[in-house]
Structure of C-type lectin domain-containing protein:
Amino acid sequence: MSDPNFYQHEENQFRNWAAGEPNNEYGIEFCGRLNLNGFWNDVPCSGTLNAVCFNVSGTTPWFYNTSSSMNWTQAQSYCREHHTDLASVRHMSDNQVIKNLITKPVWIGLYRDSWKWVDGRNSSYRYWNTGEPNNQKWKEECAAANFGSAGKWEDWSCGEKKAFICYAAPRSQQVIKLKLVFSSSLARDTSAVLKDLLKKLKQKLTDDGVKGDIKLSWRKHLDGEVFQKQRKKDEL
């Protein structure tokens, strides 16, 4: 669950792996399964199993065993459509409740975070081709769209040379007006001072929670100066 309030006292770190698990035996075991004995192991996400979904109210979950089998991604979509999500198991009590519900191994909401969007977006959308990702040639850690197969995705070695598609991320631009007080011994427009000021401003924005690629620059006046001396009242 992305909501940190659902977990208490590091409950999001609870694991009940079987001996020797997770082992990623075939290099493609990215999803978590809960077995009849209550222990977990990692298996390929393309396998079909029943799933345990849950509904959440505050910190209280209600668990539901699905009546049909599906792969992990399908199970995640099903649970998010009809309930809150695939079950998150916070402690042994949750684990025991699920164990008492099932008559065969089931998907739970644990997965190995292996595929990410480079811009950091949190999207669960996937369009894998049949049997993909399969890590067939080992170390297939990058994705390509196969337009000979309706644009469906395949995992490939990142060293492969292919055509590529770029996109322009949406950007916002803002102008901020600053008033600075300089000592008489400090030149107003020295490049070192301006560079240091931009560095400190960028760090302040990051500390304040501004996300993304922050780019700052000085806007110059018609005379080529960044700052202009403020006229005193007796000069007006």
